[in-house]
Design goal:
Blueprint lengths: L12 E2 L12 E2 L10 E4 L2 E4 L11 H18 L5 H12 L3 E2 L3 E3 L2 E7 L7 E5 L6 E4 L10 E8 L5 E8 L4 E8 L4 E2 L4 E5 L4 E3 L3 E6 L16 E6 L8 E5 L8 E6 L5 E7 L7 E5 L8 E4 L6 E7 L2 E6 L7 E6 L9 E4 L5 E7 L2 E8 L2 E7 L5 E5 L6 E4 L9 E7 L2 E8 L6 E5 L10 E9 L5 E9 L10 E4 L14 H8 L3 E5 L8 H6 L7 H16 L8 E6 L1 H12 L6 E5 L18 H4 L6 H10 L13 E7 L8 H13 L6 E6 L10 H18 L8 H8 L1
Parallel strand pairs: 37-38, 37-39, 39-40, 40-41, 41-42
Antiparallel strand pairs: 1-2, 3-4, 5-7, 6-7, 7-8, 8-9, 10-11, 11-12, 12-13, 12-14, 15-16, 16-17, 17-18, 19-20, 20-21, 21-22, 23-24, 24-25, 25-26, 27-28, 28-29, 29-30, 31-32, 32-33, 33-34, 35-36, 36-38
Length: 718
């Protein structure tokens, strides 16, 4: 394609002011995006794709387009009068020490710590009674903080460690092996590792997962043949043994490997999509042992959580949509031999093990409830949590006498508790010192009715004393997919929003995992519209009950949640004033042709499946449902130029289409973070800048020329 000349189009947009002073809003001149004659045919239907060239993320033309769009976007954002105030306040509130729960490996106790504004958290360690020392400092991995620590695994005796690094936010990883005592790097760096854990076998070596290096663009090329390798210490990666995968007869897009704590069993979990897995097991004590099939289908999500000798403990949703724990002998482990240990209940179960116990965390309308069992399935106690919110942790080795758990909710920063599994007593281990008083805020859970009559829960959080006058700036955040549950947790950025008088609302949409497999499936494939209907109904509830109005409502979500925002704003552009789709899956006809996207087909289906599936996807695909002559909400699309999970072409094409067809006074901008990926490992400095821009854009397009709560700002400055 010829070099594209970017010409500023005569698309000057003025955003109407809702403040009493009627000040003129900022003007936007969009770069003109060239269109090409590109057409795909699906089941006899021609579908134009005029911005197909933006899929070439490595081309100079796309690079020039990114530069031009960022110039317009940052030029707009820089003129918002309170943008810098938001950034400064975010830095102030973010600047508190953060600590992880400690964990024991060999002679050392390890933990992650961030002194406040460090781009990446640092791994520290100390011996009993010894001095604290730095073990790994990811802030030294790169000058700009964009290389992050993406995984850390120790050998059983704790003398060796392998850590993974991610460069520029990429899902591709490199692995480095250390002697933890001398801190000597023992091996050449392993490369091309992706969607992988690290599972040590003694001190001899470890298992990891990878794809063949893709041909063409590493960023967007398809990767759908996952393989498990064994790396033997002292040998080059080229000699690593292929353990499983890579055959043409059986394609597995994801295969994870784990080794039981006693190192007796290697367990593999082959998957073709993000839902459902097979399971195979090998006895590592027998050098001639072959894999035994536990599950030969992908009809369930099933995982070994521990073993006691040859007895396996498996968490599964096979014939139990809300999950249960079963036991079986490894010599004959097929499902017909499974015996219930912790039966299914009306609430969704997730488990962890530590100290010789099984901890069953149940979600009761997205709120945590924790029960402690022994390995015979006897209930020991309910762990009375510090409040209503989300608990996590309770994991550790079998011999551990002390475990740790965290607790948080939307207005309470996460604290860590030290737990005695024998007595059930616990105490605060660490509590953050943060410039935020949770007593000034409150959360309420409501249940609203979706389009088809389904009751959906939503937690709404705001400053106490909120006046329901329909004028409160409100963010409605959602996800609704991949069996992922949104449970209450504290966020500095949400605290900033709420201290400015903002409302933060999170519905538990279908497609998520809050009510088990049935709730997930009710938001997949040709039922995906249920998710959008649930989100729209949540917005209508907030408006009908005077929390806010369409002029003060923003919708936000990332990845699958970016799809949620894109579909909602194209179906109901009148519902909200601001739309904030982040790293979204926005081209539903082609998502499966990039990287590991085909693995998402359980949730979405693909345009190649059938005429009916194609028409259904085309009916809601955000890129294909932007209509000429429509007034869409003020939109700030955000993505990373190195996102190799949801490739940036989704966001590029959506933004270009919106800019072409947008009618009315609302701006359509795209903010493209350079040298950044899907979000994991993003430096704190970049995160603060991004949220300052998002909130500045949101408040400004709700009509504010100054921040709603100037008192907070003055107190902060003073």
């Amino acid at each position: 394609m010829k070099k594209i000349a970017f010409v500023l189009a005569a698309l000057t947009t003025f955003v109407a002011c809702k403040q009493e002073n009627k000040a003129e809003r900022l003007a936007v001149n969009y770069p003109q995006t060239e269109k090409v004659d590109s057409v795909d045919t699906y089941f006899g239907v021609d579908v134009p794709d005029p911005y197909r060239w933006l899929e070439d993320d490595m081309s100079s033309e796309t690079e020039a387009w990114v530069t031009a769009q960022n110039q317009v976007t940052f030029g707009y954002l820089e003129k918002i009068p309170f943008r810098e105030d938001l950034k400064n306040r975010l830095e102030k509130l973010w600047n508190y020490e953060k600590l992880s729960a400690p964990f024991k490996e060999g002679d050392y106790t390890y933990y992650y710590k961030n002194d406040g504004l460090q781009n990446q958290s640092v791994v520290y360690r100390k011996k009993d009674g010894g001095e604290e020392e730095v073990f790994l400092d990811p802030n030294t991995f790169s000058e700009d903080g964009t290389t992050s620590l993406a995984g850390l695994s120790f050998s059983k005796d704790g003398s060796l460690a392998t850590y993974l690094i991610s460069e520029g936010g990429s899902d591709w990883r490199k692995a480095i092996v250390l002697d933890v005592n001398s801190m000597e790097i023992l091996e050449d760096t392993l490369v091309d590792i992706k969607f992988s854990g690290l599972a040590w076998k003694g001190n001899e070596g470890f298992y990891y997962s990878s794809y063949d290096k893709p041909k063409g663009s590493e960023l967007s090329a398809k990767t759908d043949q996952h393989k498990v390798y064994y790396h033997k210490m002292g040998t080059p990666q080229a000699q690593d043994q292929l353990v499983y995968g890579g055959t043409l007869a059986e394609k597995h897009r994801y295969i994870s490997a784990s080794v039981t704590e006693d190192e007796r069993y290697l367990i593999l979990y082959p998957r073709t999509t993000t839902s459902g897995n097979k399971m195979l097991i090998r006895d590592l004590t027998d050098p001639n042992a072959l894999f035994i099939t536990v599950l030969d289908d992908t009809d369930s999500d099933s995982y070994v959580i521990d073993n006691d000798g040859s007895t396996l403990f498996i968490q599964t949703n096979r014939n139990a949509p809300n999950e249960k724990v079963v036991t079986v002998d490894a010599s004959n482990p097929t499902p017909d031999q499974w015996k219930d240990l912790i039966p299914e209940t009306e609430n969704v179960l997730s488990t962890n093990t530590g100290g010789g116990y099984i901890f069953a965390e149940y979600m009761v309308d997205a709120i945590s409830k924790v029960m402690q069992y022994d390995y015979s399935g006897n209930l020991i106690r309910e762990v009375e949590l510090p409040g209503i919110g989300s608990a996590g942790g309770f994991g550790g080795k079998k011999e551990e006498e002390i475990l740790y758990f965290s607790f948080t909710n939307y207005n309470t920063p996460s604290s860590i508790y030290k737990f005695d599994p024998k007595s059930g007593e616990y105490e605060v281990y660490w509590k953050p010192e943060i410039d935020f008083n949770p007593d000034n805020y409150e959360s309420e859970q409501v249940f609203y009715t979706s389009k088809d009559g389904t009751k959906v829960p939503m937690i709404i959080t705001y400053k106490k004393g909120l006046e329901r006058n329909g004028k409160n700036p409100t963010i409605l955040y959602g996800y609704g997919g991949f069996n992922i549950s949104l449970t209450p947790s504290f966020s500095v950025v949400n605290a900033i929003w709420m201290e400015q008088g903002g409302v933060y609302a999170v519905p538990n949409l279908r497609g998520g995992g809050e009510y088990g497999k049935k709730w997930h499936d009710a938001g997949t494939q040709m039922q995906k519209q249920n998710v959008f209907d649930d989100f729209i109904a949540a917005g209508e509830y907030l408006i009908e009950n005077n929390y806010t109005s369409s002029d003060f409502l923003a919708i936000r979500g990332g990845s699958n949640g970016g799809l949620l925002v894109g579909a909602t704003m194209t179906q109901r552009p009148d519902l909200m004033k601001v739309a904030l789709p982040a790293v979204g899956v926005l081209d539903m006809l082609r998502y499966h042709t990039f990287t590991a996207g085909a693995g998402w087909s359980y949730d979405y289906g693909t345009s190649e499946d059938s005429p009916e599936m194609f028409e259904y996807l085309k009916g809601y695909s955000p890129v294909h449902n932007v209509k000429p002559g429509t007034s869409y909400p003020a939109t700030l699309v955000t993505t990373g130029d190195h996102d190799d999970r949801v490739v940036p072409a989704h966001s590029f094409k959506f933004a270009a289409t919106l800019q072409e067809f947008q009618t009315g006074d609302n701006p359509t901008l795209i903010r493209i973070e350079t040298n950044a990926g899907h979000g994991a490992g993003k430096p704190v400095s970049k995160t603060i800048e991004e949220y300052a821009d998002i909130f500045a854009f949101t408040f400004y397009n709700m009509g504010y020329d100054t921040l709603p709560n100037q008192k907070v700002l003055k107190e902060f400055k003073d």
